[in-house]
Amino acid sequence: MLSFLIAAACQQHYSESDLLKTPLSNGATIICEKRESKVVCVDLMLSNRDTIDTPATYGYRHLLEHIVASSIPGHDREIEKVGGVLLASTGRDWMQFEWRVPADQVALAFRGIDRMLRDCGATEDNIRRESLAIGHEIDLMNSSQLLSRQAWKSVYGEEGLDPLGTKDSASTAKPEDLAALWKKMTRGSNVVISACGNLDIRAFTTSCKAILSGLATSKATPFKTRAIDGSFGARGSVAVPIPPLAASSDAASAALVAAFGLTTRLNVPFITYTPSDRGGLAIVGTLDPFESVKDVLEKEDPAIIFSLGRIGALLWLDSKLSTPEGAAELNGQFLSLAPSFRPQKLADNIRYTTYNDFLRNWNLMKEVAR
């Protein structure tokens, strides 16, 4: 029965018959998936493999994201008028701009991407304005965000610095610093356009080629792996280091299975997972104040958790791919990490995770939980 559930959990959204992936000669990549939907999602993903955060610069990418997203006068209002939205975020290994628009308004995304890639809009006035906005954003960080910041710093030390930065870190940036950062992030090999929705995938790809053809040619350099510097465990949560997703995909899948397996035995579970090819982190915990993660880890039979964890990880992956926004995001994230890595590869690795690999991660969680 469990074998049937594992197979069923990973078969619905992994068909690639309506998907076109196009690598360009300058290193950029376009991926487009056709799917019946009212909304088209177009993501511009920029890898930070050439702009790794340091104690002196962390927070700069987040500031740049704010500036770039607001750099085109009237663009957000134009999108909102047709019922769409422009979203932006800064992850640990990428920066993301996302257009969610009706299918007949996809030209808005093309115009936005073209303008952004041409000029990041870094001026002293924009830095001052967006630094204040970031200060307010940091003041409003919720408990989940604060937990994530603490866990990453505990496990990875300085290499786990939060990309959101601090109130002070953004204020030290100069226009020339951000312009140089943007120039590196928009080299060909660092750029992915990922889309999903009711699109003509060949026409979409042709339009993207025209936008990306002027980018500087570059070759993707391997990510520098984060060194584990410690561990994080508390009564209500535990952090599971996830090995590089593409470079060590079997090990990464085993750690994910252990993390998702733990959620199946918690009363009010939560999990946050950040994919990375430098070394990621899954933070698993319970919102039940009377429940101890350590007690659950000690009493549960890992053989049962192993099967439940594979099902849980596959269902998570399937849920991400079940919506246009989730599919565009995950396809773009994975390709920004490694040009050949796809969700199907992760699904296969989860299905074929060995019990011994899972058990190593399960025992690691038992060691660090408190």
**Fraction in helix:** 40-55%
Going by helix content, strand content and strand pairing, the class is: alpha+beta
Distance between termini? Answer: 34 Å
CATH architecture identity of the largest domain:
2-Layer Sandwich
Rg from C-alpha positions? 21 Å
Describe the largest sheet: 6 strands, mixed
Architecture overview:
The protein has helices at 2-9, 60-69, 75-81, 107-118, 124-139, 143-156, 167-171, 175-185, 201-212, 249-263, 293-299, 302-321, 324-337, 343-351, 355-368; strands at residues 19-23, 29-34, 39-47, 85-90, 94-102, 191-197, 233-234, 237-242, 269-274, 280-286. The chain has 2 domains: 18-212, Cytochrome Bc1 Complex, Chain A, domain 1 (2-Layer Sandwich); 233-368, Metalloenzyme, LuxS/M16 peptidase-like (Cytochrome Bc1 Complex, Chain A, domain 1), CATH 3.30.830.10. The protein contains 15 helices and 10 strands. It starts with a helix and ends with a helix. Strands 1-2-6-3-5-4 form a 6-stranded mixed β-sheet, sandwiched between helices.
